[in-house]
Amino acid sequence: MTLADLEKMTKGELETLIKDAQKALKSVDARQRKAALEAAKAAAAQHGFDLGDLTEAKIAKPKSPAKFRNPENAEDEWSGRGRQPQWFKDKIAAGAAPEDMAV
Q1: Which of 11, 13, 67, 68 has the fewest CB atoms within 10 Å, counting from its CB?
Q2: Which residues contact residue 63 at a Cβ distance below 8 angstroms, ignoring those fewer than 6 apart?
């Protein structure tokens, strides 16, 4: 199809052509994804792995050590990173210094 052919089409014909092209594009994309997945599975199998084992494995980040502890409840700890826990905010508001809660 040439540009001249497109220019002869009505708006409705062009919209239909666009919808058909989008459907075809989704179909091609799905086939390519399937082929890529099969190739990845085959490559993993060649190395003695299952693809699911390689892609679903979550490597746990080491937990940051506690820098602050609630003096009233030793189970309440905070690493000093991220949002301040409510117990920490409450202690600060009550006049406690952060050093008083340091581990």
Answers
A1: 11
A2: 79
Over 70: is that where the pLDDT of 10 sits? yes
Per-chain mean pLDDT for the chain: 90
The pair of structure tokens assigned to 52 is 């699911």
Task: Say whether 102 sits in a helix, a strand or coil.
Answer: strand
Q: What is the CA radius of gyration of the chain?
A: 30
- Tell me the percentage of the chain whose pLDDT exceeds 70: 95
Please give the model's pTM, rounded to 2 decimal places.
Answer: 0.46
Distance CA 87, CA 71 (A): 10
